[in-house]
């Protein structure tokens, strides 16, 4: 599919456009055709030859190359392309048609080398990060002035998720004053949430306090409610709790559960499930502003119920630790209620019908974990109730786990059916009441507990920010549109990464892998002190080292390691990617790989040890079913 690529070249301008399609090769081997247009047609001092060199160099950095026959033309010249092959402009709302001639074939060897080059780059980056980390750990003196004696530029990071955590681990605090603002004072390893919701791992084992990741940053427990890009300030709001501790939310939330403790867009709507005590009552709101030199928006995404009536009020979500805690309590509570002597058989069947909405990785993993809980632990404690238990997975599309290869999708489906999970594809939920789920095809499903795992939407902060930046509104996206260096288009000094950001010509999946890599990339971009206002971030004065050689900042490139998902019955699926090669695995051995990868990918040694002990504990003693 032809896509727009902002040429991003500082001296490519004064009425000039580069036209013509560029046949290009993505570093990971995806092939595409890219029409090239300048972002700044009116910039003075245009030097065509230099521009062409810079573009070629940039494309080389990106693993792309220019097509033969491409040329620079003035804007007032008629472009040398067919009228129906004009490049797509942001906000056009339509795709540009196919290029006039097919791109030349690409050698697999060349692509593989690019992939290995990327792996090598990352290895060097990691080495550099480790050196920085050690220097900070043992030699940092707590200097709040830069080496020149001037105050340091201030970097404000919004969010303590994958983006925020990766950044604070790597950022050079000798060069920046770092302020992190988030309603959650810890990093959460979301991939472990389905396991923690059913008691295999403890909640605290999947979290790391953000100040533990880097004790030299400043952290404010508050919600960012706006970013004023003209004044370069972040507007924040913090809730004051009865006991003086801080939490966050809006004025209308006073007296309601805190945003920090439930899924973002449903926090005020779940009185039915609220387990909070009076000590959490919010008694006041504090508002303040934080000026920034650079601001990184990494606020992730919110639960999306697609405005399905009754979903917010009656479903459980799986996004934050309190969500997982509520699910764990509710599963046990349902068994206890069904176990009461006066509960009728009909009521037992309804209560013990667990429904999961969404056939993506989160929904499938949760259904798999629920099955394991039933056959490994519920069978011991509630044996006589098991005949009433049913698990249903509803998926609106025709297949589950669509991110995976078709053969793996089929294996996952078979595994779930073997586990007696009723998988209903092509079943769109249209309404949910306290006791029934209504499907588009007219079916009505009585249920006891419904977990909604069917998609994510934008955070309010992101929606507001998009509306306040004219350039962003033209893209008509629900995420902040960033350029190849993760700079928010139309907002100087603002960067965005992770679930809340997208790049028009290379949209990436909303995953932890992408968010973590983008956070680390941004920290390195800032550490290396490129000119971030230049079209291509560049530095003229720097010391070349064997690790850090580049004068121009390389655009962000995602290095995919593949996909992993747990599918229940101690089986997992893996689609491991190495450049063009993809290895597909599934079964019990893959389950061991899944566990090893999750243990290794924990963000600290403490978490690795805690998770491993939790697994051992659950294997020996079973899941903890105490209700608090
Ligand atoms: C149950 C579950 C399982 C998953 N499993 C996987 C998996 O196996 N593999 C995978 O790759 N991905 C997985 N994901 C997706 C992955 O977790 C996300 O893609 C990733 O968390 C995105 O990182 P992020 O930094 O953009 O946002 P997040 O990690 O969501 O962090 C957002 C941060 O911003 C904070 N915040 C929110 N609003 C504001 C505000 N207004 N002001 C300041 N701070 C704010 C939040 O408190 C949070 O700290 C899973 C997600 C879930 C929910």
TrEMBL record:
Keywords: FAD, Flavoprotein, NAD, Oxidoreductase. Residues 154-519 form the FAD/NAD(P)-binding domain. Gene3D superfamilies: 3.50.50.100. GO terms for molecular function: NADH dehydrogenase activity. InterPro entries: FAD/NAD-bd_sf, FAD/NAD-binding_dom, NDH-2, NDH2-like_C. The keyword Oxidoreductase applies. GO terms for cellular component: mitochondrion. Residues 97-106 have a biased composition (Pro residues). Residues 562-624 form the External alternative NADH-ubiquinone oxidoreductase-like C-terminal domain. Residues 72-110 are annotated as: Disordered. Coiled coil: none annotated. Belongs to the NADH dehydrogenase family. This is NADH dehydrogenase type II.
């Amino acid at each position: 599919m032809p896509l727009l690529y902002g040429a991003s070249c500082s001296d490519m301008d004064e009425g000039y456009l580069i036209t013509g399609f560029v046949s290009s090769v993505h570093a990971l081997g995806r092939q595409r055709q890219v029409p090239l247009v300048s972002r700044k047609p009116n910039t003075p001092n245009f030097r065509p030859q230099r521009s062409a060199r810079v573009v070629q160099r940039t494309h080389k950095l990106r693993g792309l190359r220019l097509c033969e026959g491409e040329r620079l033309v003035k804007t007032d010249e008629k472009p040398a392309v067919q009228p129906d092959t004009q490049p797509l402009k942001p906000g056009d709302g339509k795709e540009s048609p196919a290029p006039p001639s097919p791109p030349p074939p690409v050698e697999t060897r060349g692509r593989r080398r690019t992939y290995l080059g990327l792996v090598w780059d990352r290895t060097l980056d990691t080495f550099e990060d480790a050196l920085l980390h050690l220097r900070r750990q043992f030699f940092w003196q707590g200097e709040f002035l830069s080496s020149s004696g001037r105050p340091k530029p201030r970097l404000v990071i919004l969010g303590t998720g994958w983006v925020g955590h990766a950044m604070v681990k790597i950022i050079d605090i000798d060069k920046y004053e770092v302020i992190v603002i988030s309603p959650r004072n810890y990093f959460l390893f979301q991939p472990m949430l389905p396991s923690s919701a059913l008691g295999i791992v403890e909640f605290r084992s999947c979290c790391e306090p953000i100040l533990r990741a880097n004790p030299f940053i400043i952290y404010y427990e508050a919600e960012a409610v706006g970013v004023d890009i003209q004044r370069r300030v972040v507007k924040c709001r913090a809730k004051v709790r009865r006991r003086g501790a801080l939490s966050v939310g809006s004025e209308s939330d006073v007296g309601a559960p805190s945003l920090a403790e439930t899924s973002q867009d449903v926090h005020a709507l779940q009185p039915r499930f609220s387990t909070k005590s009076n000590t959490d009552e919010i008694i006041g709101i504090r508002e303040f502003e934080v000026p920034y030199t650079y601001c990184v928006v990494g606020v992730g995404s919110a639960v999306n119920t697609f405005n399905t009536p009754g979903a917010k009020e009656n479903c459980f979500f799986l996004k934050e630790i309190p969500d997982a805690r509520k699910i764990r309590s509710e599963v046990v509570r349902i068994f206890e209620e069904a176990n009461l002597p006066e509960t009728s058989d009909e009521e037992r069947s309804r209560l013990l019908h667990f429904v999961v909405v969404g056939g993506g990785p989160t929904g499938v993993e949760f259904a798999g974990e629920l099955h394991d809980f039933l056959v490994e632990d519920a069978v011991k404690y509630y044996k006589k109730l098991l005949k009433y238990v049913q698990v249903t997975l509803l998926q609106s599309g025709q297949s589950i786990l669509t991110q995976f290869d078709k053969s793996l999708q089929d294996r996952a489906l078979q595994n779930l059916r073997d586990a007696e999970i009723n998988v209903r594809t092509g079943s769109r939920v249209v309404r949910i009441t306290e006791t029934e789920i209504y499907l588009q095809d007219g079916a009505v499903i009585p249920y006891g507990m419904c977990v909604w795992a069917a998609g994510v939407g934008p955070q309010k902060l992101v929606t507001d920010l998009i509306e306040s930046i004219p350039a962003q509104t033209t893209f008509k996206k629900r995420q902040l549109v960033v350029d190849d260096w993760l700079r928010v288009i139309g907002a100087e000094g603002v960067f965005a990464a992770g679930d809340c950001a997208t790049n028009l010509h290379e949209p990436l999946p909303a995953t932890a892998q992408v968010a973590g890599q983008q956070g680390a990339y941004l920290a390195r971009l800032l550490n290396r002190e490129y000119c971030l206002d230049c079209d291509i971030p560049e530095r003229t004065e720097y010391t070349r080292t064997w690790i850090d050689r580049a004068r121009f900042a390389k655009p962000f490139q995602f290095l995919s390691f593949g996909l992993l998902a747990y599918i229940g019955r101690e089986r997992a699926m893996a689609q491991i990617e190495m450049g063009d090669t993809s290895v597909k695995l599934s079964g019990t051995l893959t389950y061991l790989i899944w566990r090893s990868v999750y243990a290794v990918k924990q963000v600290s040694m403490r978490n690795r040890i805690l998770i491993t002990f939790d697994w051992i504990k659950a294997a020996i003693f079973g899941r903890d079913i105490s209700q608090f």
